[in-house]
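F.,

This is the one I mentioned.
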């Protein structure tokens, strides 16, 4: 089967959620994401989609909202055609993303590699001016 025929058989996916800034909510969202992608015949996109959305949501909960469940995180994940788009926004103060440079991190570091990871797995990465919302796109095929 050609790539064009494979993509034509797939269904678009559009998931929108708003939830309290709690790490448990990320696991629930990712479980739903996996189910929806499998049902829509997007198994090939599963790893990249979950990796990106989990990293984005972790950053929003931990850094943006400072683990305060009273604050909200919004997420929209959409796949149309061959393009995955993820938008995550939080109610935090934001950060100066334009001047944030990630140096080389130790291979044993447990944090600090998020932006590098997001850049490596996305085709396009765009912050809002305040630095509390991020949109990522990834092309497949």
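My design for it:
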């Amino acid at each position: 089967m050609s790539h064009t025929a494979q993509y034509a058989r797939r269904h678009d996916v559009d998931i929108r959620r708003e939830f309290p800034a709690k790490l448990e909510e990320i696991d629930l969202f990712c479980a739903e994401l996996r189910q929806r992608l499998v049902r829509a015949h997007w198994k090939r996109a599963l790893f990249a989609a979950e990796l990106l959305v989990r990293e984005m949501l972790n950053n929003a909960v931990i850094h943006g909202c400072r683990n305060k469940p009273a604050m909200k995180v919004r997420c929209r994940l959409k796949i149309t055609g061959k393009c995955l788009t993820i938008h995550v926004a939080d109610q935090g103060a934001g950060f100066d993303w334009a001047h944030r440079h990630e140096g080389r991190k130790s291979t044993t570091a447990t944090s600090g590699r998020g932006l590098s990871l997001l850049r490596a797995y996305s085709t396009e990465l765009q912050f809002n001016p305040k630095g509390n919302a991020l949109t990522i796109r990834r092309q497949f095929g």
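The chain has a mean pLDDT of 88.

Talk soon.
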